[in-house]
Amino acid sequence: MHPREGWPKDGSRPPLFSRRSFLARSAGAGLAAVAGGALLDACAPALAGSGKVPLPRHDHPVTWPIFDDNKPIASGLQPETGATLQIYNWVAYVNQACLNHFAKKYNCKVQMTTFNTMNEALSKLRSGLSFDVFMGVTVDVMGQLIESKLVQPLNHSYIPNISQAWPDFTNPFYDQHWQYTAPYTIYTTGISWRKDLVHENPYAMRNPWAMPWQPKYKGKVAILDDYREGISLGLLKNGIYDLNTTDRNQIALARRSLQELTSQVDVHIDNNDYTEIPNGQTWIHTAWSGDMAAAPYYMPKGVPVETVGYWFPTNGRGPVANDTNTVLRSATNPVLAHRFLNYMLDLPNVLENISFNGYMQPLTAVTPQRLVQEKLLPKSLISTAVLPSDFRRGVGELQLPVDADALWQQAWLVVSNGI
Q: What's the pLDDT at 395?
C-alpha cells in the first residue's frame, strides 16, 4: 500500500481504517480461508519467480528496452501553446501552488485528476484514459507500465534539473539510465513513539524492531495496515532483511511473530500514525517518515512536538521507498510534460511542495538541516528526513513473483483475522 492509498477524494486525512475494509478491498482476501497458516508452515523450498517481466533488484538492476514504436520525443521542441497539461496523481500528493506557478510560467492551464489506489490508476490507463503526466508512480509497477507501453521514454535534454537530484537517480536499479522515470518523493518506514509515555528509547535498544513486542504497553501499540509493511516488520524483528523473500519458512516465521504481537499487546492495525502518536491514543506505532514529519500539525494544544519520536536505523538498513514521475505515451502535450518533470526537480519548487506534501524529495540541497532551517521540519523529528545513504543501504519492498505475493497476503490475512 502507498501512504496515500485510500485517501478521501477531497484530500482530507482519511478516517480510521478498519481491518474489515482492508480485507474487503484486498486482492488476496480469498486466501484468508486457509486456516491457521497451514500453507505457510508446510515444508517447501523457496518459491521461484514467474512471469516474463523482470523484477528489478539492487543486485539485479534492470535496463528497460526502448521500443521502435515508442521512442523519446525529439529535442529542441517548444512547449505546446494554449495547452492544458493533464496530470494524474494520488490525492493530496502535490502542492496546488506548484501547479499554479507552473501554469503561469508556461502560459498554460493545469488540470489534475486523482486516484486512490495504484490498481485503480493502472486500470483506468489501460482502459484508454489519457493524461500527460503520471505522478507518484511506484517502483513495483514500472515493468507493467513500460512493457505495455503506457509510458514513453524521456528526452533528458528537457530535464536538466536532474543535476539537482541525488546522483543515484540518474542510474537507479529499477530504471537504469533513468530512461522512463524522474524521481519524486522518498520515504522510510520506521517506528514512532511517545517519548513521555514510553520508557524505552529505540536508539538504545539491541533490536529496535522488537520494540512493539512489550506486554506492558498492551492496548497502546499499532502497526501499519499494509500486508507488505506488516510481514516486513515480522521479518525484521527476526533479523531477516530480505523484504522480498519468497521463502515459505521465513514468511511463516514473520506471521507467527505478528501473531505473538497480537496476543501480547492486543495490537491495533491502522494507517493513522500521523494523528495517534501526536494525540497519545497510541504510544508505539510503525510509521512512514512523511507522515511523522507532519506530526506538528496534529499535536494537541499544550503538548510539545518534542514528545514525538521517530526511529529509523542509523545505518540505513531499513525499509526505504520512492515514487517517480513519468510522461505517458498518450500525452498530447509531451514537451510541457517534460518541462513539468523538470520543474518538480528545482529546489524552490521542491521546498514549496514539501511545505504541503510533507514527503521529502531527493535533491542534494534538501538536507535535514535545510528542512529545519526552512521550518519545514522540527529539529526533534530530523530523523524523518531521508539521507542518500538510506537509499543506498536501505531495503525495498519491491514487486514479488505472483506465487510469493500470494503467500505474503495469506500470512497477513491470517494475522489480521486474529485481531
A: 96
